[in-house]
Amino acid sequence: MHDMDHRLLSALHDCGANPRVAAAARALSWSGEHGALWLAAGLAGAALDRERRGAWLRGTALTAAAHLASMGVKRVVRRPRPGSDGSPVDVTPLVRTAGRHSFPSSHATSAAAAAVAYGALRPVGAQLVPPLAAAMCVSRMIVGVHYPSDVAAGAALGALTARVGASWMRAGGVNHG
After folding, report:
1. Which residues of 75-87 are buried (b: 16+ CB within 10 A; e: fewer)?
2. 113-149, pLDDT tens digit by residue?
3. What is the DSSP string of 128-152?
4. On the CB side of 94, how many CA atoms lie within 13 Å of its CA?
5. Whole-prediction pTM value?
6. Which partner for 150 in 10, 39, 71, 146 could form a disulfide, CB atoms 3.0-4.6 Å apart?
């Protein structure tokens, strides 16, 4: 498994040799830092979609919660990033990172949480967010800061978090029973 993780990372990181690919991957990585793109999208949805404002805010909260959960897992697992001291893969990252640990990818966690949560709110969300979230996930390997297993675990954590909270998000979060 580790060998495949390393080979896939190397292949995707090699795509960053193309200046356009590298620029797009850097932009996605920068915009996804601390879940910023996804939190801003949720707040924009809340501002623009008055009918579903509460659901958008709860979806944003789920996205933030998923991101925080990934940060907690990183503190426990403490896997070094590719190319760092103690890493078996020699890659030169194309971006700086906020932390030293790679598992799981917090970018992938918040992207997948947003794809699941926001996709459930509007058909346009279901069409636009997942491809952008997938691009965000792939960008983390192109810039050389995550292994594919980091991204897969992060995406699973984000999707699960949003899925578990989906009924709360849509129902209003209050039990009037």
Report:
1. eeeebebbebeee
2. 999 999 888 888 788 899 999 999 999 999 989 999 9
3. HHHHHHHHHHHHHHHTTS--HHHHH
4. 26
5. 0.88
6. 146
**CA 98 – CA 91 distance, rounded (Å):** 18
- Residue 44 and residue 24: Cα distance in Å, rounded? 23
Which of 154, 147, 140 lies closest to 68, judged by CA? 154
**Which residues are CB-neighbours of 33 under 8 A, at least 6 positions away?**
98, 107
Sign of CA dihedral 149, 151, 154, 158: negative
- What pLDDT, in 10s, does the model give residues 47-99? 999 888 999 999 999 999 999 999 999 999 998 888 776 666 678 887 888 88
Q: Are 81 and 105 in contact (CB under 8 A)?
A: no
Structure tokens at 124: 């346009």
Phi-psi domain of 172 (left: phi exceeds 0; alpha: psi -120 through 50; beta: other): left
Is-contact 137 130, C-beta < 8 A?
no
